[in-house]
Amino acid sequence: MSTPFETAELLCEGRVVLGSLLPGTAERLAGFSGEWLEFSPEERALLVRHVQPGGAPALSAVPAELITLLDALSAAEREAIPGGELLVRDRSGVVLRLLVERGNLRVEWPREDWSRTSPVTLGAALRSADPFSARVSGSVRFTAALGAEERLVEFVGRYEGLYPEGDLRVERQGPLVRVELRDVNVGPEELLATLRELAQPPDSLAGSLEVSSFVPHSLDRDFRLELEAGEARAVRPALWRQG
Predict the structure, then answer these.
(1) Domain tally, the chain
(2) Which residues of the chain form beta strands (DSSP E)?
(3) Residue 82 is part of which domain span?
(4) pTM of this prediction?
């Protein structure tokens, strides 16, 4: 299995399985000398190299090397390969995906599709968010004792994030507190703990919060917190086209 290789700025990970090849094809691939990719005869796959690249930028070099390697196959061999994907990332997240499917190469930039989501464990989602650059938007509601809204505003106001911006609106209607957040820089784990502490009873907490980041290219860490009856679950949006 391929181990990601990281430079100071970029990381490449993944593998493309080629399957059965003619002896001459395998020999040509084995003789390929690239900076990012190599052919593994044992795995019959294209893998990320474990030797430090000489300086070629991943965003241009990885696609070029992949095309060169695939071009060494015959048309019939390309049509028969199982395929796979390579992800190029910077330190904050996914930059692009190179998807190989039955002889076709597709280059994709990530784009969030919230109509297609997949569940993720709550702890993993919360740990993936950098609290100092997290951006939270959405709305929640809960019943609470008098003074809860002031405590929430105070908590958000004194949170030491790196991007002190956004809009927080809190209003009370009898025992019910409604909260609207727009691009608020606050740690999602700390915010969830505070909301759970303020909600009385705890199962009155409900709503939805989208957690992203002020840092570019971090779409693969974005998630949505769905709150119902005091329980929280996390989902991530699809980043790539289907099929």
Answers:
(1) 2
(2) 5-6, 10-17, 37-40, 45-48, 83-90, 93-101, 104-108, 113-120, 134-143, 167-173, 176-185, 206-213, 223-228, 231-238
(3) 5-108
(4) 0.76
